[in-house]
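Q:
My hope is that you can spare some time for a protein that puzzles me. I hope you can help me see how the letters and the tokens relate. Thank you; the sequence and its tokens follow:
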Amino acid sequence: MILKLRSKSITALPDKMTFTKLRDYRKAEQLPDISYDLDGDGFVGGKDYVIARRFDEGFKNYLNDEEKAKVDKALKAGYEDNFVWNVESSGAQRPYRILQKRGVIVDGDDYLPVTDTYPSHPMSDVKPTF
């Protein structure tokens, strides 16, 4: 019997497993593969996981060389700026709100980016004559 864990396979699995071994196998399956480590610090953090998961074609829980090249190219082009990070560190009582309005992420202080999503008024180009 062969148990397939992500990109690793374990052979000669015993017919009867203890609950502890089964729990350990399941826990190992939930850990992200080291190929998801995009910043090279040896740890797959939250940002690494979110971005790498979006480029993981087929959701096989690891990135091959081709996908890793796509991620590197996207990060150099500013793909990470499409996300708002560290919102949870403020807690529920944060002094400002972060909202998504008309597809644009805005905070409670600055609603100006929402104005770019509306079309210009037809009369905005007309100059008044006195």
Notes: Residues 34 and 41 are 10 Å apart (CA to CA). The first strand starts at residue 3 and ends at 5. The mean pLDDT is 80.
